[in-house]
Amino acid sequence: MVNNMKFDDYLQEQLKDPDFKKEWDDIQPEMDVIRAMIDARIEQNLTQKELAARTGIDQADISKLENGTRNPSLKLLKKLASGLGMQLKIEFVPMQTLRK
């Protein structure tokens, strides 16, 4: 049945499991950074190779960042943002309260 479900529907079902939800919540900040990097690159119709040329960051390192096998430093994130013509903005936001 999983094949017929959309990912978001499947995810919502899985998030009902407290252990899965905890693991999911633990990786969300990293996933948010990865998604933001990929979205910004795609919105500008850039390949990883083109972004590498703009930033001086090796294309293989950009690939590792996007697939989550390398954690970026703030310096690297700033370099990526600059290459995309953007500013890096990091926020601390209140945690969502648990619903009872």
TrEMBL record:
A Gene Ontology molecular function term of the record: DNA binding
Q: Which GO terms describe its cellular component?
A: cytosol
HTH cro/C1-type domain location, by residue? Answer: 37-93
Check the record and name the SMART domains matching this protein. Answer: HTH_XRE (SM00530)
**InterPro entries the UniProt entry points to:** Cro/C1-type_HTH, Lambda_DNA-bd_dom_sf, TransReg_Diox_bact_type
Keywords associated with the record: DNA-binding
KW DNA-binding (keyword) present: yes
**The organism sits in which domain of life?**
Bacteria
The protein's name in its UniProt record: Helix-turn-helix transcriptional regulator
Organism, as annotated: Roseburia zhanii
